[in-house]
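To whoever is on call:

I kicked off a structure prediction for a single chain this morning and the downstream step that reads the tokens threw a length-mismatch warning. I double-checked the sequence; it's 181 residues and nothing unusual in it as far as I can see. Pasting both halves so you can look.
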Amino acid sequence: MITTEDPGKCNVPKVALTRRWTLLAGAALGGAALLTGCAEDDGPDRAEHSSAADRLRERSARDSAALLARYDATLTAHPALEERLRPLRSEVGRHARAFTDDDAAPSPSAAPSRGPAHEVAAPSVPEDEKAARGALADAERRLADARTKDLLAAPPELARLLASVAASGAAHAYLLTDPAG
């Protein structure tokens, strides 16, 4: 290392750029540019359609279909809850459709349907109306919590959808347990 006795001067050694260093640096930069051009595109659109994201979407659609089946079973067992549960059930149907593109998605129709999307076994429903609402609230809460945990692994657009549906589920749980409603 070259040092100078003058403290105001730079103590960095002067390195001459030889032809060998110039060619080596040029080859390294050129190779890096070629490798970057050949790299797989990890853009946001690719992440939205990865196999992990597709599996998460499918599971979320199945979970919504199962929750929809729980609403249907509760409405069948307690028709007096129709006015209170119908808007929430309708929202759950929209959530299920949001997670899938196929036409067999659960429908938020007025009557409980038993189409291909409802091949989920009908859940048991408590005989007491308050307990039935509590069971629905618990199911909504568990699903909202699971979707919140899934946010970490989801690509951006799917994460926004999961967050929105989880927030809606948490609101449903509150409404189902609210004695005034």
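Update from on-call: the warning came from a stale cache, not from the record. Cleared it. Sanity check on the structure: The mean pLDDT is 78.
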